[in-house]
């Protein structure tokens, strides 16, 4: 469809007050939509071209405000805007495509390398009694980060502690460690995000033309991203998920030396059992 008026004529009507701002924007949008060949835009299909125009629409609105008649017509002004923005849009879409492909590839690799979950029996076998319930209780609190409610219910009879009391002890320990546990969880999430960010940098670097500034930019960002990922992993490795002996002693209401001695005894038993 060929519009009877040019963009410059629409702009003149707007400046003279014959049409309002909304009508001008609508006329420009429809004009560009129906005259794609006139602006030498890439050979998009109709759906992609419409997506591009929706992305371009805010810039068209700003172009109306910024345009000043200094010898160049409004048609030429909008034409230049479309040509340069089309290049930017294609570059962004290529980046998004490479990014999406990288995420899917990484996700596929995770699914391939993920070990199949073992089959657990429907009926959980209860623990037998232990020779030193106090040592097991202290060890349980020391490893509270990995203890589930189901495990608590199974182990409580073996160490001769009511499961409700045991849950309260662990909950109290979690409250004491809440800030630290939050930091650990937040750091793990950031490591996960940084890992995928590095994958995206690598894929976008591969998709960019050889020797281009964009490729070099992605290469630099990839190197910095990998260094940051290594630093974050090192920091996480240094963060202890277990509570201190003093915190365990505080929850149990016993001296710290009692916790120290019981854990030391367990450690020695473990060494002898492996020899």
Helix-strand layout with pairing:
Elements: H1 7-15, H2 21-34, H3 46-66, H4 74-113, H5 133-142, H6 149-155, H7 163-176, H8 178-207, H9 213-237, H10 245-252, H11 256-274
Structural account:
It is a single chain. This protein is mostly helical and 275 residues long. The chain is built from eleven helices and no strands. The radius of gyration is 33 Å and the shape is elongated.
List keywords for this structure.
275 residues, 72% helix, mainly alpha
Average pLDDT over all residues: 82
The low-pLDDT segments are none
- Estimate nothing, just give the exact number of structural domains: 3
Question: Percent helix among the residues?
Answer: over 70%
User: Count the helices. How many?
Assistant: 11
Q: Determine the strand fraction and express it as a percent band.
A: under 5%
- Radius of gyration, in Å, reads 33 Å
Q: Can you tell me the overall shape?
A: elongated
The biggest beta sheet reads: none
Head-to-tail CA distance between termini: 88 Å
Number of strands: 0
Give a brief outline of the structure:
The protein has 275 residues and is mainly alpha-helical. It is built from eleven helices and no strands.
């Amino acid at each position: 469809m060929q519009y009877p008026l040019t963009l410059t004529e629409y702009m003149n009507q707007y400046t003279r007050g014959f049409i309002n701002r909304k009508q001008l924007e609508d006329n420009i949008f429809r004009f560009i939509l129906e005259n794609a060949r006139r602006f030498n835009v890439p050979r998009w299909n109709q759906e992609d071209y419409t997506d591009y125009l929706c992305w371009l629409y805010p810039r068209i609105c700003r172009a109306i405000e910024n345009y000043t008649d200094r010898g160049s017509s409004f048609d030429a002004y909008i034409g230049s805007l479309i040509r340069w923005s089309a290049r930017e849009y294609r570059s962004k879409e290529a980046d998004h495509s490479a990014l999406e492909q990288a995420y899917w590839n990484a996700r596929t690799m995770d699914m391939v390398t993920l070990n199949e979950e073992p089959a657990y029996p429907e009926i959980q076998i209860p623990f037998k009694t232990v020779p030193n319930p106090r040592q097991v209780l202290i060890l349980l609190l020391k490893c509270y980060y990995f203890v589930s409610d189901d495990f608590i219910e199974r182990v409580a009879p073996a160490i001769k502690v009511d499961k409700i009391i045991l849950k309260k002890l662990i909950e109290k320990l979690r409250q004491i460690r809440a800030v630290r546990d939050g930091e650990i969880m937040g750091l793990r999430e950031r490591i996960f995000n940084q890992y995928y960010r590095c994958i995206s940098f690598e894929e976008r670097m591969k998709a960019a033309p050889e020797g281009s500034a964009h490729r070099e930019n992605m290469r630099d960002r990839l190197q910095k991203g990998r260094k940051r990922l290594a630093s974050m992993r090192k920091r996480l490795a240094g963060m202890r998920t277990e509570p201190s002996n003093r915190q365990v002693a505080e929850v149990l209401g016993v001296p710290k030396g009692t916790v120290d001695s019981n854990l030391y005894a367990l450690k020695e038993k473990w060494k002898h059992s492996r020899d």
